Amino acid sequence: MKVAFYTLGCKVNQYETEAMREAFAAAGHTPVTDDTPFDAVVINSCTVTAESDRKTRQAVRRFRRERPDAIIILTGCMVQAFSDEAQALSEADVVAGNTDVKKIVEYAERFALDGERIFIAEKHKKRERFNTPSLNAFAERTRAYMKIEDGCERYCTYCIIPTARGFVRSKPICDIKAEAERLANAGFSEIVLVGINLTSYGKGEETDLCDAVEAVAAVEKIKRVRLGSLEPDHMSDEMLARLSRVEKFCPQFHLSLQSGCDETLKRMNRHYDTAFYRDLVLRIRKAFKNAAVTTDVMVGFAGETEEEFKKSLDFVKEIGFAKVHIFAYSRRRGTVAYGLKDQVIRAEKARRSHIMGQAAALSENAFLKSEIGNSCPVLFETGTDGYAEGYTPNYSRVKVKCNRDLCGKILNVKITAAENGCCIGEITGE
């Protein structure tokens, strides 16, 4: 079969799609892009927001409409969290949860043989083991992602992910190092460690996130190690000290904030307050030269008053984030917040998103301008119209004039300007 793949959601989902791509190839099938003829398509769903669910439904129906004879396979978080809604999507031939991505090939082959619709959505179990297959490569990427953790047990009141992903489980250190070796041999020089709750890596075991970073950094051909999203209250002084001693560690910290208002944070059941978060940012900036702090901010959470929104806005302005991802709160059936009073209307969420977006843009622009004059190594990823683009260790996007193919190369660049969300630089050496 020719099999296409369509992925919604986070870096973990992207990693799992790559794992399924490799599994289909190993079984003798041919992975293709979704804009070419295919016999089957795997839709890897997200369910963080209601919009994610809408996009999933839309994708299933579009592929059925465009490819009426193809096998439509729906998997991922939406299936796991809202199995009744997923099962109701009659356009999908195979509907399977995310408990075991390795079985997707088996389900697709079974349907191809007998044509009987398959629906499997087993609940995550308490003693479930980390079972996502390791990768040998990462298609069409300069940086490789490596999933090392799954599950979340924080139970934020707005979040359906504990239902979708189950309990915390971690990839063994020996598997992390082996996968890093394979990715290095495949030509990757940077690995980004990702997970559903990355800072919970090693929970209940004798390892932690620093062990994972050190294991990857020990691979000679790997030049950079980067971390995905982090929970602030899990970032201890000991962790920061250990990470600061890893020469290959990239000083970009994506610290999930969600709100800059203590009252809102409490209703969200977040496990820190703004004072803790502020202090953590100061400690990071003290421990790491030219560190970038990025974040997620939610607006319009249940009960968020204008005063609370203003507090959150002022806090975002105060911290000086390098980048802010802004989301309007989305009610998710099955969460505590779904039933909270004083839900904010859609129009007000849109207004607050706009205002927060303006503050975020100013913050990002100020950070990029602070990079002017710095010299730093850039991992180049793309090249178009006489320019090459890549990223610094702190994940600032850099563009240089160049007609050579620099994809995959790390070159020293001096930052000379900043405009339109990007630094401008000049190559100064290898």
Kindly summarize this structure in a few lines.
With 430 residues, the chain is α/β, with parallel strands linked by helices. It has helices spanning 11-26, 50-66, 77-81, 83-87, 104-114, 161-165, 173-185, 209-217, 237-244, 262-268, 274-287, 306-319, 346-370, and strands at 2-7, 30-31, 40-45, 71-76, 94-96, 118-120, 143-150, 169-170, 190-195, 224-227, 229-230, 252-255, 292-299, 323-328, 375-384, 387-391, 397-401, 410-419, 422-429.
Report the uncertain regions.
none
Known CATH architecture of the largest domain = Alpha-Beta Horseshoe
Distance between the termini: 44 Å
Give the strand order, joined by hyphens, for the main sheet: 2-1-3-4-5-6
CATH fold title of the largest domain: pyruvate-formate lyase- activating enzyme
The major sheet is characterized as:
6 strands, parallel
Domains (count):
3
Q: Output the CATH homologous superfamily of the largest domain.
A: tm_1862 like domain
Estimated share of beta-strand residues: 15-25%
Structural class: alpha/beta
Task: Write down the overall mean pLDDT.
Answer: 95
CATH class of the largest domain: Alpha Beta
Inertia-based shape:
globular
Q: Helix tally?
A: 13
* Fraction of helical residues: 25-40%
Radius of gyration: 22 Å
Total count of strands: 19
